[in-house]
Structure formats: structure tokens, C-alpha cells
Amino acid sequence: VRHNASLLLSGIVIDRDSEVPLAVQLYDELRQAIVSGQLRRGARIPSTRALAADLEISRNTVAAAYDYLLGEGYIQSRSGAGSVVSSALPEDHLSSDPGDALSDGTNDNHLALRGVVLAEGADHVSPYEPPRPFVVGTPDVSEFPFDVWSRLLLKHWRSPLMRMVCSVDAAGYLKLREAITHYVGAARGLRCTPERVFVVSGSRQGLDMAVRLLVDRNDEVLMEDPGYPGARSAFEGAGARLYPLDIDEEGARVPDGRVKAKMAFLTPSHQYPLGMTMSLERRKKWLAWAESNSAWIIEDDFDSEFRYAGRPEPAMQGLDQSGRVIYLGTFSKTLLPSLRLGFVVLPECLVQPFRRARAVIDGFPPILEQAVLAEFIHDGHFGRHVRRMRMLYDERRLTLETEFAREMQGIIALDPCDTGIHVVGWLADGITEQDTIKAAAASGFHLRGLQPCRIRPAQRQGLLLGFAAAQPEELRRSVRILAPAMRRLESN
Ligand SMILES: Cc1ncc(COP(=O)(O)O)c(C=O)c1O
Fold first, then answer.
1. β-strand pairing of 220-224 with 263-266
2. What is each CA distance from 278 to 120, 190, 288, 451, in whole angstroms?
3. pLDDT tens column, 27-81
4. Which residues line ligand 1 (CB under 6 A)?
5. Rounded to an integer, what distance in angstroms lies between the CA atom of residue 467 and that of residue 395?
């Protein structure tokens, strides 16, 4: 069955003899179809494969045209559902009465294009779910030393130092920045001073600020594919053009010299979601790329504290000689997601712009929790908690591996996992993520597929399986409940 939009697009004319590149011609044709209303807002557009076949051109060409349209906000990608025409078009902002252009009711709030894209991004960014077997990204919050934390909270609340409550620094509480500097230097090999640490409300705020300050509309941004959907939405919200990076066993591949970009978003310690650690050689290549392109690297070091084998690979930031790396750290996985505490380690030249921009954005971060965390780290509670959780998580990781090897053989094959709090499970040929998620839900489990992390469609089907947020016994029981439902998929 031909897709509706394909029929509508049957008028597309591509001139192979033209000087104008095919991708640009296709972009112009599609944009025209969208602006003229021939392709309505919200209408699905054909997959790159279908359109490439229709027009007898390469899929890369179609993908490039779609990337331009995406970057400019004419289309939006929906995980699992391909791409659709945006509900608000860039042209809406040129109209004298924006209400006219949006009167089809698809954008009742009259959001700016950025607002539409950011609000839609919420579909792809999974919230922190309560601890349960297989939940992704949530640490075991029940093991948090609440007694120590509440003692420190009370202490600081009862005797607020006047200096602390009156003199607030846009970059965050100095004692916390000092404690973070010490910690990331010792544990993650960063080269850092307290002046370069910038406390944020979770690493997502750090990313949002970096994008706001450094990425303009239509700037090219490189992103791992598959990669972290939260980053993708932040870049799309800024109107950036995403260039997907291939990933091999050494991590994200450096594109050839022709690709010029403003920024690359990377997870070198623990590729999100696939889990490999970037090799030293590859890190050096990326740093050379950043230097020669005067580009930024965002290093998202989200759960590297949990490494179960070998020595932790130091962060890329520690190797950076030319000040091109912006390092994102978070306490969401090591402590509690609900603390909303993370930090950015900035290159020298970005310290002042970040401080000044914050005066406009949110002033400064809440002070009380920062004071508590500073003392929590300083007194050794943080180090102890991370070491303890690493041991607990290691046991859970091994439990999951053993149970899957026994119960899921031939259906789901786990990748080796030596870092973080989730593992990737690959589905046997013929079993889809969608069917697996549906079958698991019927047994009471919420599973997550790789699909939302993908920028380009891919054949290989897989799941993200969290192991941190349940005791070994519960994990064992859960795998045994899940297994029969999975076996039924195999026989279908
Ligand atoms: C790869 C990655 N980066 C960043 C984050 C965001 O963490 P935060 O809670 O610090 O905003 C997450 C959250 O799950 C993540 O998976």
C-alpha cells in the first residue's frame, strides 16, 4: 500500500543533470509541498527508504534532505512513527497574526517553534521511574543514607551562615564547587579548578545552557546514533541540524574531514545506550577533531562511577589541551535523581558567559542542598555510598546475566556490561521491540526498546534492561515471570 504522503509527493521532480545537489532539490520540493499545504501539518512523511525507492535516488540523499527540513523545523521526528510535518512552521513566525497561521487547532497554545519541538521532545525523554526490576536509569534510592542527609540538612537549615544565604554565586556554592573539583580530579582525572565548576539542576540544565549559549539555528551538531534522546531534543529545540555518528567497539566514530560541525555530543566513558567505553586512541582523535574544527565536545559522564571490571577510564576532559571539552556530571545516578544536582566543568573562556547568562535564566541554584552535598562529599559519605552501591549493583548485574543466560537463551542475548546501571539485550531475529514491550507489559513489566535512542532507522532490535533498582531476589523472580511471555514471542 502506498503511503498517503507518497501519493501527494508523486509530483516531486528531481533533475539529475542540474548543478543543484539532489538533496537540496528534494529539500526545496518538500518544503514547497509543506508550505503550500499540499502536505498538511501533522501528516506523516514517507520513510527515507520508501521515498528513495519512489524517486530512485539514494537513501542518504533523502536522509540529508530530511535533516535539513528537521533542522529548520518543517518536520519533526517521532520515535517509532517516522517523521511528520511540524505542527508549527517557521513561516508562522513571519505572519502578522500568528493566530491565523495556527488556527488549525494543532497549536492551541501558540507556542514558538522552539516550544513545539521542546514540548514534543518530552515524548522521547523517559522520566525517572520508581525503582522496579528492569527500570532504566533509576538508581536504588532506597539504599540512600537518608539519616545522614537529614542530619546535615537540619544542621545547615538551623544555622544558616549569613555569608551562605546572602552572598550567592551564579556558579554555585563555593564549598560544593571545591568538593566537586577535588572529587572529579581524583576519581575522573579531570583538570579543573573550582572557578570552572558550574552547579546546575541536573546535567540536563547544563546541556540546555550549553546549547543556548553555543548553538545557533541550522548549526550542525554531531550526535551518537543510537544516543541519548534528551540531548537530541535539546539540539532539535535549538534548530540544530543533527548529523548521526556511527558507533563501533571503540565508541563514536570521528567523521571525515568534510563534516564541519559546531559541536559533538559524546558519552565516552559509557556510550549511551550501547555501553562501550571509548578507546584512548578514539578520544585523542575526537580532541584533534575539535581543535582543528574549533568545535565543542560535550562530554556526558552520566554513570561512569559504576565500573565493575578494570580501572575506570579517565574522562576525556583530562586529556583536552585546547579547552574544547564541556564536561557534564550528575548526582542523579550516584545519589538521587530528585536532588536535581549536577555540574558542568567549563573551559576557561566559557566561565564568564555562563555566569552572566545565568543571571537571566535562573539566577543561581538553590543553596541549602548544595551546602549539604558539600559536607556530604567532604566528610566521605559520598565516596562510601558510591563504593557500597557499586558492590550492590555488581551483584545485581551478575544476577541478571545469569538469569538471562538460563531463561532467555535464544530470545534475548545480553551484551557484556562492565559499567553503568543498565545492559543492552539484543532480540533474536523476527522478534520486535514493540511486541516484546507489549508482551512484557501484559506480565506487569515496563521494558524500554532502543528505538527512541535511534536517529536513523535500524534493523537490529534491542532492549535496555536496568538492573540497579531491584534486589537480586526480585530480579531473579522477575526474569522467571517474564521468560514464558518472551518464549511465546519466539514461537509466534
Ligand atoms: C545519558 C544521560 N545523560 C544525562 C541524563 C540526565 O541526567 P540528569 O538527571 O542529571 O538531568 C540522563 C538521564 O537519564 C542520561 O541517561
1. parallel
2. 31, 16, 15, 22
3. 888 988 888 777 888 788 888 888 988 888 988 889 888 988 888 888 988 766 6
4. 137, 202-204, 228, 230, 267, 272, 300, 302, 330, 332, 337, 342
5. 9
